[in-house]
Amino acid sequence: MRGKLHRMKGLMLSIAIAAGTCAGCGGEFSGFSRERPASGGAVSGEAVSGGAVKPVGKDRSENYSYCNEKNLYYVGNDTGTLVEHNRQSGKERRLPVKGISKICYVDEDWVYYEVFSSDGGQGENQIWRAPVRKENQWKLDETVAELMLEMNPENSWCRRILCNGSYIVCDEPEDGRQTLKLYNIWKKQYEPSGVGSGFLSVEGVFRESVVITCDSGLVEKKLGSDTINLIRGEERSHIIYTASDVPNNELFWMEREGDEKNEVLWRYRLEDGKKEKLFDLAQIRQLLKGWGALEDCECETSAGHEIYLKNLFIRGDHLNAQFWILGGHDVPECRNMIVISKKRDGSGEWEWEKEINEYLHNPEADQKLFEKITGSGSECECIYRSRGIVVSMAEDICLMYLEHTGEKKNQLASYDFRTGTFKWLTKQDWQWWLPYYKSGAGLNTHGYSEYMPNNFEME
């Protein structure tokens, strides 16, 4: 990735690893309506760690992702299987669902999922839901699943469908333009969006709002209301990164500032409309210099370093930012991945994430010069000062994909912030975790190779 930052549509909030099994979950964003949740249950937000999950209270304010109080739901690696994973016992039920592609939303009464249906002609996307039988040990009853919505089959492959238990939201292509579609689950009908058509991309669905990027910029549309708030009204092409923190009702985005290459990260609080600047890259560059992260190479004395925000993670009461650093192009360039953190309440300064950066660091003996074909297809001479990338973070766990030094393989690893322990994970762990980080990715490591010193296959 050079000269352009890929826009991120999602933000993994938390993941837990315990005894080689998954106690949490992750995936697309969803939220809920506080006024009238469609099924009155616990709600789906981002991933939660096992330790963070609590019994559902009367205010039903807990947020889960593809989880309810008892079970985790995911689409199996084998085609056409919905898996119900008991979060206490670890036992799984594998339910055949023809054409299932992803889980959309889960609460204590329903599981919503997307199916691609095709009878030899043009296929179409369908949203189904099946009830959770609490009287039968919280088991899903797929035999009485009901079809909620059939989508227009035109260009269905590029549509993004999200759900929050009250609404099904998507951006639908139509005659070369896109329209925001809001389907009220309670009323079983579409509602007018009021934002017109043109360029449009759904960035996140929250408890009471949907946020989109459109021709006029970043826009918040209140669900069940005519209210539309303009979060950022300048040219949309300046927005290069978006991430949604659904449980905390916050939106993050990175934008180019004027004609200078000084990108700025902002946070917007949907509850009160407060907008806050978190950092710009000029500030980050000074911090990195102070920490010595831009030293010990020829790049800084030639063309300097390019710095990109790769990921933003929420970890308990902290924000963690991961930066991809590329050295100058007229010398054998260095490539480095580092993580910094800050209290999410705004107090304190950005700090060097010592433990994680130590595990990301490539040992000096392995920092050799070689030519490499990157993910963009270009060939360059480079030296990797890091040996991998942070895939996701939770309050207690950091999930990384690293070169296993000396073993000549790339492997998934975890770091436990509570105990300070590092663990190499197995192929079985990889099959478990990656689908929740990146839907449908499975064992496919395409997209990671650019951040790895060598393109070893995982064990």
Uncertain segments are 1-64, 435-444
Strand content: 35-45%
* Mean pLDDT across residues: 75
Radius of gyration: 22 Å
| Helical stretch tally | 3
Q: Calculate the terminal CA-CA distance, rounded to whole Å.
A: 26 Å
Summarize the amount of helix as a percent range.
under 10%
Coarse structural class: mainly beta
Shape: globular
State the major sheet. 6 strands, mixed
Number of DSSP-assigned strands: 35
Short description:
With 459 residues, this protein is mainly beta.
What can you see in these coordinates?
This protein is mostly beta strands. 6% of the residues lie in helices and 43% in strands. The protein has 3 helices and 35 strands. The chain has helices at residues 281-291, 354-360, 427-437, and strands at 17-18, 21-22, 43-44, 63-64, 71-75, 81-86, 92-96, 100-106, 110-117, 124-133, 139-140, 146-150, 161-163, 167-174, 177-184, 189-191, 197-198, 200-205, 209-214, 217-222, 228-232, 239-245, 250-256, 263-269, 275-280, 306-315, 318-326, 333-343, 351-352, 370-373, 379-384, 388-393, 397-404, 409-416, 421-424. Strands 26, 27, 28, 29, 30 and 31 form a 6-stranded mixed beta sheet that branches. Strands 8, 9, 10, 11 and 12 form a 5-stranded antiparallel beta sheet that branches. Strands 13, 14, 15, 16 and 17 form a 5-stranded antiparallel beta sheet that branches. A hairpin with a 2-residue loop joins strand 1 and strand 2 (21-22). It starts with 16 loop residues before the first strand and ends in a 22-residue tail after the last helix. The model is unreliable at 1-64 and 435-444 (pLDDT under 50).
